[in-house]
Please model this.
Amino acid sequence: MECSNIKNKSRTPLSDISTPIISNSPSFSASPPPPTPPPMIMSPCAACKILRRRCVEKCVLAPYFPPTEPLKFTIAHRIFGASNIIKLLQELPESQRADAVSSMVYEANARIRDPVYGCAGAICNLQKQISELQSELAKANALLVNMQSQQANLVALICMEMSQPEQGPISSQPFENLNFFPDDGNLGSGWDEPLWT
Model:
């Protein structure tokens, strides 16, 4: 063992390095220094990836087209073009940019689905549905009012029947003299003559 200690005399043993030195002086801190964070590798935004350009630190598109959503930029880029999107975002205040991007993506989706009408077609379909539903609602309200009036009439009729004093059994005397059919002798007199001459 002595030979191995002589050969490794120039090296410091690992046990000496890992042992902390404790001092009573107030200026020395016993805690190790905080570890340095690993170097952060910034991924370019989806717009810069698709455009194959370097994403700078103050990229206008980076906050609105994150690297996890490349389809969002692809759709908007296909309809509006990257330069138009950048110009629009630079002209707007930052508070309105997020709404503008979501609006552009929605409009681009609508234009891809319906190349002729785009958003106008979607709006027209929604307005048509609204008018149909309003007419159905009006019909249902009219039916409801009709049923309520019938119910009110029925309740009034029942109340009138209950409020009238009870009468005895209805006599059949007024109906005794009613004869709807003529006597059997007169019945055949009109039928003796032929219909055709």
The first helix runs from residue 2 to 7. Residues 1-25, 37-41 have pLDDT under 50 and may be disordered. DSSP finds eight helices and no strands in the chain. Residues 37 and 72 are 32 Å apart (CA to CA).
